[in-house]
Amino acid sequence: MERALIEVLMFWMLTTPHEFAHAWVATKLGDDTPSLEGRVTLNPLAHVDWIGTVFLPLAASIFGGMFIGWGKPVNTNPYKLRGGLNGMALVAMAGPASNVIFAILLLAVAAHTSDTVGALCAMAARLSLFLAIFNMIPVPPLDGSKLLLAARVPFFIYNELARFGFILILIAISATSLGQWMSSWSDHATVAIFHWFA
Q1: What's the whole-number mean pLDDT along residues 22-48?
Q2: Average pLDDT, stretch 86-110?
Q3: Which residues have CB under 8 Å from 10's CB, separation 6+?
Q4: Fewer Cβ close by (within 10 Å): the C or N end of the chain?
Q5: What is the pLDDT of residues 103-145, one digit of tens each?
Q6: Which of 94, 11, 25, 111 lies closest to 54 in space, CA to CA?
Q7: d(CA 52, CA 175)
Q8: Residue 147 confidence (pLDDT)
Q9: Rounded distance, CA 110 to CA 119, Å?
Q10: Does residue 87 register a pLDDT over 80?
Q11: How many beta carbons lie within 10 A of that of residue 156, not counting itself?
Q12: 178-195 burial, b if ≥16 CB within 10 A, otherwise e?
């Protein structure tokens, strides 16, 4: 139970800079929607989806299921964004990029601190890198799907993917080696970055 609570708290803390990054970049590109909705903040309460951020990940951690979760989505108005669909892609990529940056910072701390704190930072960094990789899957509603729009994939194809997106993601992770590959890649990346500082 203690490990499950730690994992959920880590996940919540990692979704905060992720969603903030979406909101901040959207604001910089001219869309005031995130600002009007109070999302340009690092306050974790502003970005929590109680089911997706807390209850579902907690249940998965306790009962040993597949760890899956999400933060409260940041609303944007593509008609206000400079660059249109390209601007939307930049907003989407800001989330995974923030996870990579946060992981690097965590591993810098892990390399120069006590064993307990260092282990927690390394654990959080690995999860942060996993989230970055996971969110790059080009299936709605994940961030990577916005690259399809930037590549001008027809909207009807994108909409069809969106209809079954959640199911497709679950199948891809549970029935293929994708989940194992993402986990392995995040492990290797964590070790490699740690050695930069160690």
Answers
A1: 97
A2: 97
A3: 120, 123, 124, 127
A4: N
A5: 999 999 999 988 889 999 999 999 999 999 999 999 999 999 9
A6: 11
A7: 22
A8: 95
A9: 7
A10: yes
A11: 8
A12: bbeebbeebeebbeebbe
Burial of 14 (0-12, 13-18, 19+ CB in 10 A): buried
Give the ranges where 37-151 is alpha helix by DSSP (H). Answer: 56-63, 85-110, 115-135, 146-150
CA separation for the pair 52, 54 (Å, rounded): 6
What is the DSSP-derived secondary structure letter of residue 1?
-
141 cis-preceded (ω within 30 degrees of 0): yes
Structure tokens at 81: 């964004």
* Residue 13 amino acid letter: M
Q: Where are the domains of the chain?
A: 2-197
C-alpha span between 41 and 58 (Å, rounded): 25
And the tokens for 13? 């803390």
Contact 66, 134 (CB under 8 A): no
